[in-house]
Design brief:
Structural class: mainly alpha
Order of helices and strands: HHH
Helix content: over 70%
Mean pLDDT: 94
Number of strands: 0
Distance between the termini: 45 Å
Low-confidence stretches: none
Number of helices: 3
Number of domains: 1
Strand content: under 5%
């Protein structure tokens, strides 16, 4: 039961962070938008691992990789 509650709060934290990143992206505030979206994907990845959802693990691992490569290329 406790693990389910923790997963619930992690999911909502990830949602808020990801939506914040989307707002920053729509306002063209770079690199903060990419950093925030990367953080959201990382939190969602933790949540997906907790609930053992392989599709969500794959999607968020992919997003984390894509955002990280984009940030690295852009900032170097």
């Amino acid at each position: 039961m406790k693990n389910k509650q923790v997963a619930h709060y992690i999911k909502w934290l990830a949602t808020i962070v990801t939506l914040s990143g989307a707002i920053l992206a729509s306002l063209n505030i770079y690199p903060y938008s990419a950093i925030t979206l990367n953080t959201g994907a990382g939190i969602f990845l933790i949540w997906a691992i907790l609930i053992r959802d392989r599709a969500m693990i794959t999607v968020n691992l992919g997003l984390l990789l894509i955002y990280s490569i984009g940030l690295t290329v852009k900032l170097l």
